[in-house]
Amino acid sequence: MSLYLYNTLTRKKEPFTPLHPPYVGMYVCGPTVYGDPHLGHARAAITFDVLFRYLRYLGYQVRYVRNITDVGHLEGDADEGEDKILKKARLEKVEPIEIAQRYTALYHKAMDALNVLRPSVEPTATGHIAQQIAMIERILQNGYAYEVNGSVYLDVEKYRQDYPYGILSGRNIEELIAGSRELEGQAEKKHPWDFALWKRAEPTHLMQWDSPWGRGFPGWHIECSAMSIHYLGVPFDIHGGGLDLIFPHHEAEIAQAHACFGPEAHHQARFWIHNNLVTIEGQKMSKSLGNFITIEEIFTGRHPKLSRGYPPMALRFLFLQAHYRSTVDFSEEALSAAYKGYLRLMTAFERLKEVRPHTYSSFSVSAWRERVFTALHDDLNTAAALAAFFEQTEDILRLRRQEIFLTPEDLSLLQKTWQEVLIDILGLIPLTQVEWHRWKIAIELLIRLRREARAAKNYSLADLLRDELQNMGVRLLDFPDETLWEMHE
């Protein structure tokens, strides 16, 4: 069974085979650290965390590189305007490095809570200025860039004579011309659609470095090209990021790689993979619309659109329930439903440990397991894989009650699949043994008192205990000889 991934470059699913098996090189664009991590950061991180986990599960040795952008990302993703980190530093009257370090730490804290594994390498843009300058020098030597007034721009028209520009996004120069407008400070460019590799810095600019063209700072796009190629070579296997990065950022990266290394760059990466975006109740997430939600606000509930806080696994499960290439429309209702789904599966996971083997099997575990991995092999379809687990919860209940049976071998395979997929690949954190045993003791005590009340025909007390259990997020499953339960929020 081959793993198929959707390649934005070719616009189709392709079987994944690394360039140098069993080694895999994967680069993902990380955050620009000037503000609190938000839902968009979480979606991208979880998407590529699952891919990282799955590739390792399949036996590959993965070097996962995810950068930190701490300079050069100007407002509006353009070549003019203020650096986002410098703007934040000016507003707070602190040094830019303080802003970068503070929000990098907050990003790490949020990702750790969401059980996102740390990448193999996490380079910063400011730590790789030499690599960026070297790449720009080579692009200039190859004739695909020009220097003016201390700034260096990639000459898109010159580049188009040898390579297609727009191959990733599908855009063409005519569209760019129609959508372009003269911006202040862009008169020095040959064409409005040329983009900066290096920008001359004013004396008051707080982040600047020496270069062959004078004091300045790198353009946003060159940072990722230089860091990815430095750690993974060119071409490498997988380049990932959010859908909003396809143009101009990733399109520019491909152009820089070709301009620097020629045709052997092969579009910088073989697979370009993009996760879709998060909307808020049908609208684009935006601070100006008042619907911008940070990860910390999800955890604490301190946001007008939330009535309470939710644990990290509720948010992780929400994203896993959708295919990574589909839009996720966030609302408290959707988040609450995701948390209920998470608790239901984790309860079933614990119940599975209580099942006793039998001398024969009532159903084929291997056929069900194949269905789960077929979904994951089909462009990482976590939604379809989770659907298979939800369908299995009733079977686990019946196995627990010995209405259906599994041999020791089949039971072991079933337990192994739940552990491997839900915990190891999808990265869900099970209920801790302390949590589980505390809940189990308290819940089963209340259930026993309820059964005794029903036996004594004290139905008002029995109903009161049932209602209290429901308020605790416990769903009761009554049978003639026993009452089982599951966490249901």
Please write out the topology:
Elements: E1 4-7, E2 12-15, E3 23-28, H1 39-57, E4 61-66, H2 84-92, H3 96-113, H4 129-141, E5 145-148, E6 151-154, H5 156-160, H6 173-179, E7 195-200, E8 216-218, H7 220-232, E9 236-242, H8 246-261, E10 269-275, E11 278-280, E12 283-284, H9 295-300, H10 312-320, E13 328-330, H11 332-352, H12 365-377, H13 382-400, H14 408-425, H15 433-455, H16 459-471, E14 474-478, E15 483-487
Parallel strand pairs: 3-4, 3-9, 9-10, 11-13
Antiparallel strand pairs: 1-2, 5-6, 6-7, 7-8, 11-12, 14-15
Helix pairs in contact: 1-10, 2-3, 4-7, 4-8, 7-8, 10-11, 11-13, 12-13, 12-14, 15-16
Task: Give the structure's gist in a few sentences.
With about 500 residues, this protein is of the alpha/beta class.
What does this 3D model show about the protein?
The chain is α/β, with parallel strands linked by helices and 489 residues long. The protein has three domains: 4-145 and 154-181 and 220-275, Rossmann fold (3-Layer(aba) Sandwich), CATH 3.40.50; 279-425, Isoleucyl-tRNA Synthetase, Domain 1 (Orthogonal Bundle); 433-487, no CATH class. 45% of the residues lie in helices and 14% in strands. It is elongated and about 90 Å long.
Please tag this protein with its features.
489 residues; alpha/beta; Rossmann fold; Isoleucyl-tRNA Synthetase, Domain 1; 3 domains; 4-stranded parallel beta sheet; 16 helices; 15 strands; elongated
